[in-house]
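Quick start: read one record
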Amino acid sequence: MKLKNLGYAAVIVATAIAFVIGSGGPSQAKKKAKEAAPPPQTLCFGSDKPVCATKGGLKFTYANSCYAAKDGAKSAKPGACKAAKAHKKGGKKKMSKPAKKKEMKKEMKPAKKKATKKKM
């Protein structure tokens, strides 16, 4: 019986040693931190000629191409981006001035009362 217990103890000790040796190497977190290091800081000097650059499928206007590159934008073109037209959905219909006046007159008139005849 003692021999059997010693065998179990030996297996447990061997497993613990293997675990300690296996975890003694460099951790994966350190490797990931080195790989995902932020880009070096760059200072942007020079002209203030605006550029239109695309980032994530959207267009943005930057002060110059250096700022656009620093922000990670692609395909910078000289000049500011054109403003997109806003679409109105479910808005009121545009009416001409005479139609508006007629509509206003209708709203201003008091409602007519129906005359009722009394029977005697």
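Residues 2-25+44-78 form one domain.
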